[in-house]
Amino acid sequence: MWTYIKMLEYPVNIKTTNAKLATAIMSQLGGPDGEKGAATRYLSQRYAMPDKRVCGVLTDIGTEELGHEEMVSTIITMLTKNLTMDEIEKSGFAPYYVDHTIGVYPQAASGVPFSAATIQSTGDPLADLHEDLAAEQKARLTYDNILRLCKDEPDVYDAIKFLRAREMVHYQRFGESLRLIQDNLDSKNFYAFNPAFDKGENCL
Amino acid sequence: MENMCREDLMKMIQSTNFTVIELGMYLDTHPECPYALSTYEEACHTLKTAIKIYEMKFGPLTIHGVETDNGWSWTATPWPWQKGCEY
To answer: Which of A29, A139, A174, B8 is the residue whose CA sits 20 to 30 A from A129?
Structure first.
């Protein structure tokens, strides 16, 4: 169960429109390493996780990612506010505008719609946690790439910098989660086969 | 906290809420860290008080805190992505 709090996790206050930048930042909502994928990944993986502490990490990080979806969506909304037709045509925003006007739609910067095909929930705690570590690094580097594009927009830069820092903290927590699972592996499970499924008998 | 303006109180709620989120996550993998536990407890207490004061003065923050004396105020204040709601 979730309860909505009527505020952003971190303030976003963007005064100038910039449709070109909005198209790039959109990737962190619906792109291959975006916040929607992150939330969906962690909140799906929880159910196969045998360790209560790691269930907590997936729940709490997954929940924070929902808040990040809201922050990224707010950035996009503010960057596209009061766009004129002239700006839409000149900024390369026309292809997006045709399908979504200035509504928020989860897609990658390249225009590819959000897909759960970019995430996994394998039912194997070790495989999932390895994916989560990679996911946090990919999200962090995407924010790095975005930061290089918004050096002249201090309001956008500030919010993106916050989101980037969160990826690094999540990476730490997932690293500790992986260690917790590994420390509790059966000592005969040398090759770290699925500890949530191959309990009694080996698959081979 | 009672005398803070809406902007300052909201800023305080956001930063205290962040402390709670961050420490909660840390405690998931370090459940016995005494410093994290006491800081978490302190932040939770401040957050609860701040939310209570904010909701009394400026409108609801969660569906659990809606004051109905003057009707349904949940939808009367702007949403975080709307103009005039710069937080």
So the answer is: A29
